[in-house]
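Late entry, evening session. Most of the bench is empty. Finally got around to the prediction I had been postponing all week. Sequence below, unchanged from the version circulated by S.P.
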Amino acid sequence: MSGTRSSQVLFREWRGGDATSGQVMAQRFAHWYYAITTSRLGETAGRVPCETSCAQFGQGIVHVTEARDLVPWAHKIVQDQLATAGNRADDGDEPNIYTGNQRPKVLLSKSRVALPAEVALLEAAYGKADKTRVDELAAPMGGNPLGVLKARYRVKQWLRDNEGVPFEVAPDNPILDRKPLPMYESAKMATPEEEANFEQWMISDIDLCKDIAEFAHFAIALRGGLPSEAEVASQIVPKAAPDDPDEEEFGGSNAGIVAAVGGVTVVGGMVVLALIVLATAAFFLYFK
């Protein structure tokens, strides 16, 4: 049942003495922080901002008294960390477990052979093409932005089915509410306020956070542009086996992403819940 309750409901329950709700809430915010920081900076560069955000969340949550203030307060934490770390990567080609330890640009270039229209659309939408060009490429797939979202999921499906990329979120029929997703990943939302609103909305949908996190390195690679076929041929290397194929949880292993402990402290006759968030080296999925 906790998965269907909003963060605000979990917060109220935690404030009322329910330590289990506090633990679920902490895990939810940790997943959210992971999705935001990894999408913007990549796994390596996003590690410190994510861990620091989790730590500050754990330290400061006891001072938040109103449920309506929870998400804006928590979002300000990660915004400040991102501002210090560089805000968003313009390019990258970092392999990780989600890429089978292959470079994401190589994988995307392979998918370009099988799905030329879809990858061309993603290259335009995430890259430097103007809106007119993106609209033109998206028209056969349902227009912009829905066509871009469809192309994104078709590429995810192809990478999952043909390259063994362990994507969990790749629906045949995209959720229409997620149409702004490619604009967020490509840093093309109209205003900083629109981007902030989207990030705050993400906390209400952990499946969306997972979708963003598992495609993060591919989105960053698309932002910088894909190599030519000749360049791809020189970069292809055999896939390496993952260190632990059983670890497939979003944002960390069963013990990893966050250890959240709901404790009870009595202060002046009042029961005050203390939420301790421990960010560990296992915080990141397969981070080595």
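Two things to note before I forget:
Strands lie at 259-267, 270-278.
Confidence is low (pLDDT under 50) at residues 242-250, 252-288.
Will write this up properly tomorrow.
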